[in-house]
Design brief:
Strand content: 15-25%
CATH class: Alpha Beta
Order of helices and strands: HEHHEHEEHEEHEHEHEHEHEHH
Largest sheet: 9 strands, mixed
Number of helices: 12
Shape: globular
CATH architecture: Alpha-Beta Barrel
Distance between the termini: 29 Å
Number of domains: 1
Length: 295
């Protein structure tokens, strides 16, 4: 594991940019960016359009290691290039931003109030390719809709089971058991999740650490025990459907937690903007999220 990158994540001021929209979320992300579905004919062209968007964000002067400590990439983004360099190499060598890779294959159908991760039969090969390309860590997402004790337990068990495989390959896993912000049982689900997370963290080896990516909680500072846990390198928060303003306000009330926003980061950016307009809008977005992350 790259020790300079490890130190950047542990001690650096800033947040993690989530640039990992997958096949299911890409059309919506492109539409928000001003790219309509009738401008691409198939998945290949769709992913070319989203790579153009991500490349424009990463190459912008507003996007750098001074305020952004890491970035999560979709597999196709990792396999692409920016200004002639492989994306992960560009992020670290040019921008001093630590690269992570989304490794999950999406969500299974809902059962017991949750959606587990689909099987990942090629995880080993994907991790090996990621390491070869300079990726520091991984991210994988599950989804909790209801406060079902068995469902939440299954989510955490799966996250830590696969996280152990990722650790064994020398990569840093970001475990993301997202709680639905619209769930009427959100606070109760968060209480169940925290309990299970702490038990799983306590069971890790003394030389092991993971990262957690969690929904902004109903109760302020709710995940303080996770932030302070010796087996946790960093706790980051997803925006989860909140606007950037709402997400920043909630984040600032959770000291020690930093942002890992996707939609909130790119809010207000469009393909039609001039470079000056685009860079200015991205700079304002980055600054607001940075300020909420270090509050």
């Amino acid at each position: 594991m790259n020790q300079e990158q490890l130190h950047k994540i542990r001690a650096g001021d800033g947040f993690i940019a989530a640039l990992d929209q997958s096949g299911g979320s890409t059309p919506k992300a492109l539409k928000l960016y001003g790219v309509e579905a009738d401008t691409y004919a198939n998945d290949t062209e769709m992913f070319e359009r989203i790579h153009e968007m991500r490349s424009r964000i990463i190459a912008s002067p507003a996007f750098s290691g001074g305020r952004i400590i890491g970035a999560i990439l979709f597999e196709r983004t990792m396999d692409g290039t920016i200004e002639g360099r492989q994306t992960a190499d560009y992020l670290w060598s040019v921008k001093q931003v630590v690269p992570f890779l989304k490794v999950d294959k999406g969500l299974a159908d809902e059962a017991r109030g949750v959606q587990m991760m689909k099987p990942m039969p090629d995880l080993g090969d994907l991790m090996a390719r990621g390491k070869d390309k300079g990726v520091f860590g991984t991210k994988m997402r599950s989804f909790i809709r209801q406060a079902d004790e068995g469902g939440v337990a299954a989510i955490v068990d799966q996250q830590f089971e696969i996280g152990a495989q990722i650790l064994a390959q020398g990569l840093m896993p970001i475990l993301e058991p997202e709680v639905d912000i619209r769930s009427p049982e959100k606070a109760r689900a968060e209480a169940l999740l925290r309990e299970r997370l702490l038990a799983a963290l306590d069971a890790l080896g003394s030389d092991q650490q993971v990262m957690l990516k969690l929904t902004l909680p109903t109760e302020d500072d709710f995940y303080r025990v996770c932030v302070d846990h010796p087996r946790v390198l960093k706790v980051v928060a997803l925006s989860g459907g909140y606007s950037r303003r709402e997400a920043n306000e909630l984040l600032a009330r959770n000291p020690g937690v930093v942002a890992s926003f996707s939609r909130a980061l790119s809010e207000g950016l469009t393909a039609q903007q001039s470079d000056e307009e685009f860079n200015s809008a991205l700079d304002a977005s980055v600054q607001s999220i940075y300020e909420a992350s270090v509050a």
